[in-house]
Request: fold
Amino acid sequence: MRPTELPKEPWTELAIDICGPFPTGEYIVVLTDYYSRWPEAKTLITVTSATILKWLNSIFAQHGYPTVLKQIVIKKHVLTAQAEQKDWRESLPNLLLHYRTTPHRITGQTPAKLLMKRELRTKIPAISTVDQPTDWHEEVRRKDDNEKSKAKAYTDKKRHAAERKFIVGDKVLVKQKRKNKYSTKFCKDPMTITKINGTQIVLTDLHGKQHRRNSSHVKKYWTTSEPNNVEDEDFVAESQLPQSTTEETPPDSNPNIPIIQPDPTPLRRSTREKTVSDRLRY
Reply:
């Protein structure tokens, strides 16, 4: 598991996700700020580049343009509204308000405070406070790192995950789709790593064609002349198999093993006269 690093400031790295279609045939486009967790959402009947860009431009007109926009929590809200027999379209703005004014579990601050440096006023009575220059941004970063480290440790332990170490030039085997029950999990032809970008690996096959895979979909390829890494238990070279240093002793020449002689007495068969039962006679 690789947690996302907290950006240096709000509204620099955003994530966009499209949920749907829902039973009404509509979609929800969600935009989230990685730093403040500030959400924006829009209901769309048709999901096209033109409709999404039009909505994004209206959002960027309020908060400005980000430096990074990545493609990722709102479907649960729609299902909950349907279970309560409510119109989820009308309750969506209220959901966004509650989310923006609720302290986040990881940061400990509300998305509104981290993005706008002020709390939004809601119907719930609250004491009005004015922020003084403090180092609460450092506190947010510390809490974010701490919570993500806990989540990573728990997930890695549960999945028995181990970090894969690759370098450019390594030969690896790539996972393939199983066509039948005789198909192997990995392709038999090794590929060579030409570029590594985080968990993304660029590979070149024997024909010179490039492929892009996640590091979890590849494993190192070892030959019998190369030393095998202990961490890669998927393959063990033939030369590393333990060899017996002593010759096996035939069982007959081992004095500790008793020799069983066959019994010369032939099997004795019954000499009783066999008769047919009366009920079987006609």
Summary: The mean pLDDT is 78. The helical segments are 49-63, 75-83, 88-100, 111-116, 136-159. The CA atoms of residues 193 and 203 lie 5 Å apart. The longest strand covers residues 13-19.
